[in-house]
Amino acid sequence: MRDVRQRLRTPITALALVVAGLLTVSSCSGGGPALPGASSGPDASTAPPVPAPTIKISPVKGAAKVRPDKPVVVTAAGGALEDVNLTSGGKPVEGEFNADRTRWKSSGPLKPASEYSITARAAGEGGPATVTGGFTTLTPARQLRIADVTPNLKGETVGIGMPIMVTFDQEVKDKKSVEAALTVTSDKPATGAWRWMSDRLVIYRPAKYWAAHQKVKLTANLQGVRGASDMYGVRNYTATMKIGAAWISTVSTRAHTMVVRKDGKVVKRMAISAGKATTREYTTTNGVHLTMERGNPVTMISPGKKEGDPGYYKEIVNHAVRISSSGEYVHSAPWSVGSQGRANVSHGCVNARPDQAKWFYDNFHRGDIVKVTGTNRQLEWNNGWGFWQMSFKQWRKGSALPKSTQTVTG
């Protein structure tokens, strides 16, 4: 009996050791589910905090000789921009945010030779952030200014064909940037385009004659605009012209008449004498002219000839209104009253009776239309203000911008 008990005691002890070993292994594995309220690990209560947003400003703080035509850009990471305040001399600079307000960019060029300060604020999960900065724009070696705008006489009323002519004091090389800074607006909608005549002269004309009785405004936001290497605009300009009635005069060199219409109504019929057409020089040019200037009197001298040469003349005429650069006028000619309405005997001008020439002189505006018909010599588009001789499709090819057509509205 004693032997049996001894044999049974040994397996029970071994089983207990195995179970104890399994329990020991299980308790150290860490693979079991955690008890409620138990810690999941030693780092659970020490997770790193979410950082505040990061704000970057370009140009960087303290930058000098910053190009005024380059935008100021502010970006935020880890949050959204709440406010950006860019100023110079106490005046704010406008800008725009992107859709999620992680980026802000200034609108338009800056002022040359100026100090700017900037403050940007952002907010995010990690709290608010504020960054300040400042920089100085470069002083241009050359300053681009407008030397003249035609028309720009105070209180002047102009005709429906009047172009806007802008002359710069420096040669413009970056025509795209400068042209983009020129805006034309009008009370009555129209379409027009700029055309560069030279590095200093750019001209705007509408596709069709201006609508009568309205105002047209030129705005030239040139401040900070790059015109060439080391050359920037330093100020902005505005000019306004008043479009008067639609004065259109039609000259028939064959019928020897000039019919003047105001807003479509005939207000004057004039007997005239045009160029005698014995030479090209003495042939009145055909096409759409614009009235340019007037004089009383005007001394007219035969071009390219000196006293004693065949065909030389020097005459003083009254009430003369210029319609081209090649010497054509509508003017008084008392010496040819007998030919007016009957024959063409002039050196190329449109001659009229003294009283009718004075009436025309007193009533014309710069930019009124004088349309000549009946001759075989065409007015060149760049002879005086003969710009209406060129189709608008061709005209806008002289623009520096890819899409040169501009819609002008009030």
From TrEMBL:
Residues 35-45 have a biased composition (Low complexity). The keyword Acyltransferase applies. Residues 247-373 form the L,D-TPase catalytic domain. Pathway: Cell wall biogenesis; peptidoglycan biosynthesis. Transmembrane segments: none annotated. PROSITE patterns: LD_TPASE, PROKAR_LIPOPROTEIN. The active site is at residues 331, 349. InterPro entries: Big_10, LD-transpeptidase, LD_TPept_cat_dom, Transpep_catalytic_dom. Residues 32-51 are annotated as: Disordered. Gene3D superfamilies: 2.60.40.3710, 2.60.40.3780, L,D-transpeptidase catalytic domain-like. SUPFAM superfamilies: L,D-transpeptidase catalytic domain-like (SSF141523). CDD domains: LDT_IgD_like_2, YkuD_like. PANTHER family: L,D-TRANSPEPTIDASE (PTHR30582), L,D-TRANSPEPTIDASE YCIB-RELATED (PTHR30582:SF2). This is Ig-like domain-containing protein.
